[in-house]
Design a protein that fits this description.
16 helices; two-stranded antiparallel ribbon; four-stranded antiparallel sheet
Length: 436
């Protein structure tokens, strides 16, 4: 069972399908089914860039992608390269690069975009101003695809501020007000750009694995860009806050279950008076929980915050199946030093414990819990059925098998030194109860 459970653990998936939180006859279930079947667009994702000196030429080259002197692996170029590998990047659209659109907006070839007054070049023209009164911003300046003559320093901020207030229309579709007004964060004194983002769309995400893997891919891409360009980049999408937990869930599960096992070992060793018996109980409980995890892999139970809490609780409940048997084993005779214990004596103590306590564990713990959780099999909530009925059923069966079958056998080999439990004086108890 343990080896089979190890195989099952390899098939455990992360996530919590939102359809499980609904009653099986809810109208939202077919709605979410149709979304997964027909929706052919993914959620937007933003790669936020911080720390680039955008008003300087080097900072512009770290971000841009449409000019010949841009860095080969700039932010825009890296995102475009990743977009061409959607199976690993989960990016399904070209990046909306504000820096490229802004610099193209200043191109004098587009006569209707960046315009200034002929009489006063310090005053920008609006889309309503007559062509007779205006001219392109760089009509009398050098402007080249190699970024020669493009604005820098104070001039960059001057034109960028105007661009962010310029609408997009038929005459000039490169205006930045509609697509980029929220994509660029200006400093309080308008002398620099604090941060900016590049907008893309994920590929259509259907399953929980798609959402989790797309988050991991976005973080990998951001880390690669940061290491190549020196610009701090991080990704953001609306669903990231819900799926960030799965980046840390596995190590947290190991940590929590290990601490719980350590607590079981310490407490049972102290109360049973033997570290050998305490260690045996701890190992048996851990194996029982591993079997539950194996069932999760074979029965389609995902690992998430709910199932992790159930696993920790399962480890605690598994003690109930083992502790009574271990206590009966320790108190079934004794006084014999460990080095003088014979195999026969250990077998007899295990048999005695199984005869004395086994029926109580079976009828008082196993059957009562089994009957109690059986009603959950009839629930209309898939959440209760999957994460409570299935997990508790697996725990009860596993705990009973390990507590009643495996534990006595292991104790007969490595159990601790026994001792005699004092018989209860019934007359003394009765007299105490009658006292006022």
């Amino acid at each position: 069972m343990f080896l089979t459970a190890i195989i099952g653990i390899q098939h455990i998936k992360y996530g919590l399908d939102q359809r499980l939180a609904l009653p099986t006859d809810s109208y939202l279930v077919p709605y979410f089914d149709d979304l997964a079947k027909y929706l052919d667009v993914g959620p937007p994702v933003y790669f936020v860039a911080q720390g680039a000196d955008v008003i300087g030429r080097h900072g512009q080259q770290q971000l841009c992608g449409r000019f010949t002197t841009c860095m080969e692996l700039s932010v825009a170029n890296s995102l475009e390269a990743e977009r061409k590998r959607p199976e690993s990047s989960f990016l399904g659209s070209p990046p909306a690069s504000w820096i490229d659109d802004f610099l193209q907006w200043t191109n004098p070839t587009f006569e209707s975009c960046c315009r200034v007054r002929k009489s006063n070049p310090d005053v920008f023209c609006t889309s309503r101003d007559s062509e007779r009164l205006c001219r392109p911003c760089f009509a009398d300046h050098e402007w080249d695809i190699t970024m020669t003559g493009l604005p820098e320093d104070a001039a960059f901020m001057k034109y960028a501020t105007q661009w962010l207030h310029s609408p997009s229309d038929e005459s000039c579709p490169l205006g930045g007000q509609a697509p980029y007004s929220s994509a660029v964060k200006l400093a309080a004194d308008n002398t620099s750009i604090v941060a900016s983002h590049f907008r893309l769309y994920h590929t259509p995400l259907k399953t929980q694995d798609d959402f989790i893997n797309s988050l991991s891919a976005a973080r990998r891409i951001a880390a690669d860009i940061t290491s190549r360009t020196g610009v701090k980049v991080f990704p953001y999408s609306l669903f990231y806050v819900f799926f960030d937990q799965y980046e840390h869930l596995a190590p947290i599960a190991v940590q929590v279950l290990s601490l719980a096992s350590l607590a079981i070992f310490v407490i049972t060793s102290i109360l049973l008076g033997s570290w050998r018996t305490g260690a045996t109980v701890t190992v048996i409980c851990a194996i029982a929980v591993v079997d539950v995890m194996g069932v999760m892999g074979f029965w389609g139970i995902s690992l998430n915050a709910i199932s992790l809490v159930n696993l920790v609780i399962s480890l605690g409940i598994a003690v109930e199946f083992c502790s009574h048997m271990a206590r009966a084993f320790m108190g079934a005779g004794g006084g014999v030093p460990w080095e003088k214990d014979s195999g026969r004596e250990m077998d007899e103590r295990a048999i005695t414990a199984l005869i004395d306590v086994g029926p109580s564990v079976f009828s008082g713990i196993t059957m009562t819990k089994l009957i109690g959780i059986s009603v959950l099999a009839l629930t209309r909530s898939k959440l209760l059925e999957v994460y409570f009925f299935r997990m508790w059923l697996a725990l009860i069966l596993s705990g009973a098998l390990h507590g009643l079958v495996l534990l006595p056998v292991v104790l007969s080999y490595v159990g601790g030194q026994g001792y005699s439990l004092e018989d209860t004086d019934e007359e003394w108890v009765t007299s105490q109860m009658r006292r006022p």
